[in-house]
């Protein structure tokens, strides 16, 4: 400890501990603190093991990548990935992928993944840029100011706010806050405008604009009056030409589940029989095998009740039940088509329009006086994104579920305060050793072990603890939201609130409270002042948190050991059928925006909030997020298949969350300046806070309408009507005149804002490179013409609940030398169950071998990805 203090003293020169111009503050105000600071030991104790872990993890990844391409490079060859979207790769060598990783830019992800995937990379890069610029602004000014601030802090705490004792020096912090926080707010505005232009270009790109989903609107809770095709234009606006009514068919869902379950059990039983007989053949060593006798010995059975139920022949039982369920389902479907629809029992309706322009006009237009005026509506939905069980629910039932789920989410956030608070206290145990007797054993531990306990242990436990929270939130949201994107956005909102409150605020305050526990016990009225003064001490936790996340966790994100271990274990020990092995091999990792955005938005919030209190956090955050960016970029190019598409909404929400960091930074500085009784810096921050609120409100007021609209002058080349004509939010100009975003903003701006301000904003926020006309070229892809299009039957039933259209699954057996599979296929076909054994056979070790050519696209149950 002494060596560390001497190192810092020699670095900053003599006389650093004295301030001749100003008096030292009283104990508890930051100038005096325990000599037990282990900030440097905590950093080193965290960095060394995590760095070594990261290096070892990456070496293992390089060794395994070529052996398991289905885990580490499926996007280069999988049949489930359209050929036009596959990432080019020279080979499966250890370093062959580096050339593609280096030469392909992020726009490749935009064209061949999704707009959300590209925006995720852009979000990480923007946060890195913000933190880097923050370092350039804060470090040259605040490091010297803090280091020579007159306090007696040691190690890394010496270059934080806690080492400043004089009032005059606080003007530097206030001035830097104005510059840096102003830059953050400008960046948020610029990204929101960029998103608007990018989405505009995306919607107008030819492949997207011509899709059925771009021309279809979902209206929730329509009138119970039966709608015919002749009534569509009158009720649902001009251009409506087709509709699909949604009704409550939850009773049929149980039949579908039972039918599919019995079919899969039948498949498993038949494959088991085939393998058992084939095993006896192998054991006979070429001798004559009595197949009917062998079958009696190994034919699978099934108990009607667990453990003690009657035994029945499994194949016959599951086959009969599957066909019985199919018959009941067909009868139930006829009942739905003959009664529910005719009686007007609809809970939602999908309406297809002739053009995207007509659909957009109907989606945006608020026509007061019509029965649908305030009903929720959605546009651009793929059929697979619809949560049919929720769309089929009545409004009252769905809203009651929403209220209950929201209450449960709030309770979850509150409940988690207890374990997270304990973790935050662990990170500052060294401050309590002289106050709490039973913790004095910490003083006898070596410095490296103290650093390990207070540095590495808390963030590791915290990361593990919070990993289960978003899964719970997602399950809650999917119980009532009508679509998967809506559920994911709600998950994002809930999880960010959790991250902000638990991972940041609770941890910060418990860490700060641990440092001054005895003063709080002695003077309860000083709680706000003491916590505000000791917030800088909690920054050490986040330094180690960023190290852990940016090194070992980022490397593990590439190695993906959990998926690898699961694949190896299940493929070799558990999966016994061709279908199970195929699905295990071709399963592609996804990415959940409701999980990743809140985590890294909170990273940015922490860095921004501490930017002027402990500027070192900006550098650690930049490095940590950079390594994560590299890991996610690799995954998006080679591994991940994006399965949730918010079309940029998650990106916009994340930048709304970034403002939280700005507010927290300003409020913390106001509190710190007030404690120091520095009126000048306090006034500067209060003024900045007021301006921030005005800026934020105005920004939302100006940009929110144009974020969700396509201006009237933008149209497809083959469309005559404007995209959004007559909407109250669009510019009142002739479609051919054109208009800029800035001119739209000017119309909605408060009158007291000078027009010249918007001329400057137009040049800063909307340079030519960010206009939708330029961005539209980003979506131009010659291979896009190869995209699979739905056939007529698929288009006709696109927005029909799958419960009403799904067929009995086609069974896939394994071919054997005794031709048992052929016999089972015949039996299934007689019962009306389609079955095949093509593309799978048993080898001489009785292992299932299936056709992996062309990434699994040659097998009989392969389904090509189709975008509606």
Q: What is the global morphology?
A: globular
Task: Give average pLDDT, whole number.
Answer: 80
Which class do the helix and strand fractions yield?
A: mainly alpha
- Largest sheet descriptor: 4 strands, antiparallel
**N-to-C terminal Cα separation, in Å?**
65 Å
- Strand content is under 5%
Give the C-alpha Rg.
Answer: 32 Å
Work out the count of structural domains.
2
Give the beta-strand count. Answer: 10
State the share of residues found in helices, binned by percent. Answer: 55-70%
Question: How many helices?
Answer: 32
> For the largest beta sheet, what order do the strands appear in spatially?
2-5-1-6
Low-pLDDT residue intervals, each spanning 5 or more residues: 1-36, 339-343, 366-374, 720-743
InterPro entries: Csc1-like, CSC1/OSCA1-like_7TM, CSC1/OSCA1-like_cyt, CSC1/OSCA1-like_N, PHM7_ext
Domain CSC1/OSCA1-like cytosolic: 228-390
Membrane topology: Multi-pass membrane protein
Organism: Rhizodiscina lignyota
Describe what you observe in this structure.
The N and C termini lie far apart (65 Å). This protein is mostly helical and 868 residues long. It contains 32 helices and 10 strands.
What is the topology?
Blueprint: H1 2-12, H2 39-64, H3 69-72, H4 97-103, H5 106-112, H6 115-147, H7 170-204, H8 206-209, E1 216-220, H9 232-236, E2 240-247, H10 250-283, H11 291-298, E3 301-303, E4 311-313, H12 314-340, E5 346-353, H13 356-364, E6 377-379, H14 388-391, H15 395-415, H16 417-426, H17 447-466, H18 469-477, H19 484-515, H20 517-522, H21 527-559, H22 561-574, H23 578-586, H24 593-609, H25 616-638, H26 649-675, H27 679-707, H28 741-748, H29 755-765, H30 772-775, H31 792-796, E7 811-812, H32 820-830, E8 835-836, E9 840-842, E10 848-850
Parallel strand pairs: 7-8
Antiparallel strand pairs: 1-5, 1-6, 2-5, 3-4, 9-10
Helix pairs in contact: 2-17, 2-21, 5-6, 6-7, 6-24, 6-25, 7-26, 7-27, 10-11, 10-12, 16-17, 16-19, 17-21, 18-19, 19-21, 19-24, 19-26, 21-25, 21-26, 24-25, 24-26, 26-27, 27-28, 28-29
């Amino acid at each position: 400890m002494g060596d560390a203090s001497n190192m810092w003293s020699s670095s900053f020169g003599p006389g650093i501990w004295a301030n001749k111009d100003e008096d030292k503050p009283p104990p508890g105000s930051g100038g005096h603190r325990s000599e037990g600071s282990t900030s440097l030991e905590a950093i080193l104790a965290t960095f060394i093991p995590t760095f070594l872990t990261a290096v070892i993890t990456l070496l293992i990844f390089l060794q395994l990548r070529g052996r398991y391409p289905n885990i580490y490079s499926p996007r280069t060859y999988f049949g489930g990935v359209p050929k036009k979207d596959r990432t080019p790769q020279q080979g499966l060598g250890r370093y062959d992928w580096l050339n593609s990783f280096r030469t392909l830019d992020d726009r490749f992800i935009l064209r061949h993944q999704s707009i959300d995937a590209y925006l995720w990379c852009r979000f990480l890069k923007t946060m890195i840029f913000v933190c880097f610029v923050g370092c350039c602004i804060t470090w040259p000014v605040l490091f010297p100011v803090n280091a020579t601030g007159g306090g007696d802090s040691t190690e890394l705490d010496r270059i934080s706010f806690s080492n400043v004792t004089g009032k005059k020096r606080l003007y530097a912090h206030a001035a830097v806050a104005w510059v840096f926080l102003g830059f953050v707010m400008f960046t948020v505005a610029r990204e929101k405008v960029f998103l608007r232009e990018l989405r505009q270009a995306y919607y107008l790109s030819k492949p997207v604009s011509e899709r059925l989903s771009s021309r279809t609107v979902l209206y929730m809770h329509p009138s119970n009056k039966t709608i015919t095709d002749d009534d569509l234009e009158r009720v649902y606006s001009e251009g409506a030409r087709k509709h699909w009514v949604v009704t409550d068919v939850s009773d049929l869902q149980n039949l579908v589940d039972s039918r599919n379950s019995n079919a899969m059990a039948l498949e498993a039983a038949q494959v088991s029989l085939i393998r058992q007989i084939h095993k006896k053949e192998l054991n006979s060593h070429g001798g004559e095998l009595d197949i009917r006798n062998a079958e009696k010995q190994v034919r699978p059975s099934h108990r009607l009740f667990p453990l003690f139920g009657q035994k029945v022949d499994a194949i016959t039982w599951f086959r009969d039940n599957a066909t019985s369920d199919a018959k009941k389902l067909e009868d139930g479907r006829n009942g739905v088509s003959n009664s529910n629809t005719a009686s007007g029992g609809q809970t939602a309706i999908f309406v297809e329009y002739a053009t995207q322009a007509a659909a957009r006009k109907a989606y945006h237009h608020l026509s007061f006086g019509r029965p649908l005026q305030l009903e929720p509506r959605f546009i651009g939905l793929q059929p697979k994104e619809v949560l049919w069980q929720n769309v089929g629910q009545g409004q009252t039932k769905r809203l009651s579920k929403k209220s209950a789920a929201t209450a449960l989410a709030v309770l979850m956030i509150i409940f988690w305060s207890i374990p997270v608070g304990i973790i935050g206290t662990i990170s500052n145990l060294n401050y309590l050793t002289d106050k709490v007797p039973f913790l004095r054993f910490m003083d006898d531990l070596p410095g490296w072990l103290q650093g390990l306990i207070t540095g590495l242990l808390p963030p590791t436990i915290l990361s593990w603890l919070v990993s289960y929270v978003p899964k719970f939130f997602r399950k809650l949201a999917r119980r009532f939201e009508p679509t998967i994107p809506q559920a994911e956005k709600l998950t994002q909102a809930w999880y960010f609130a959790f991250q902000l409150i638990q991972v940041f605020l609770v941890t910060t305050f418990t860490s700060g409270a641990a440092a001054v526990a005895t003063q709080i016990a002695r003077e309860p009225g000083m709680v706000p002042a003491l916590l505000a003064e000791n917030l800088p001490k909690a920054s050490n936790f986040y330094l180690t948190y960023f190290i852990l996340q940016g090194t070992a966790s980022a490397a593990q994100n590439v190695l993906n050991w959990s998926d690898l271990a699961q694949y190896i274990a299940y493929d070799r020990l558990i999966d016994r059928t061709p279908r199970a092995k195929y699905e295990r091999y071709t399963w592609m990792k996804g990415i959940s925006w409701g999980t990743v955005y809140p985590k890294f938005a909170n990273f940015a919030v922490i860095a921004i909030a501490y930017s002027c209190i402990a500027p070192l956090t900006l550098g650690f955050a930049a490095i940590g997020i950079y390594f994560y960016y590299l890991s996610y970029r690799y995954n998006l190019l080679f591994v991940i298949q994006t399965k949730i598409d918010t079309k940029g909404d998650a990106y916009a929400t994340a930048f709304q969350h970034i403002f939280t960091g700005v507010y927290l930074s300003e409020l913390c500085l106001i509190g710190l300046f007030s404690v120091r009784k520095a009126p000048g810096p306090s006034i500067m921050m209060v003024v900045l806070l007021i301006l921030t609120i005005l800026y934020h409100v105005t920004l939302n007021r100006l940009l929110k309408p144009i974020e969700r609209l396509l201006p009237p002058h933008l149209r497809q080349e083959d469309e005559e009507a404007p995209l959004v004509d007559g909407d109250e939010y669009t510019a009142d100009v002739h479609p051919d005149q054109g208009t800029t975003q800035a001119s739209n903003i000017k119309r909605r701006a408060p009158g007291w804002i000078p027009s010249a301000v918007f001329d400057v904003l137009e040049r800063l926020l909307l340079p030519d490179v960010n206009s939708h006309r330029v961005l539209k070229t980003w979506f131009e892809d010659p291979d896009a013409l190869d995209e699979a299009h739905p056939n007529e039957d698929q288009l006709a039933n696109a927005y029909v609940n799958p419960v009403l259209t799904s067929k009995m699954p086609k069974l896939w057996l394994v071919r054997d030398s005794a031709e048992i599979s052929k016999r089972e296929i015949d039996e299934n076909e007689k019962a009306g169950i389609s079955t095949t054994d093509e593309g799978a056979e048993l080898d001489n070790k009785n292992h299932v071998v299936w056709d992996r050519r062309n990434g699994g696209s040659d097998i009989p149950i392969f389904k090509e990805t189709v975008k509606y």
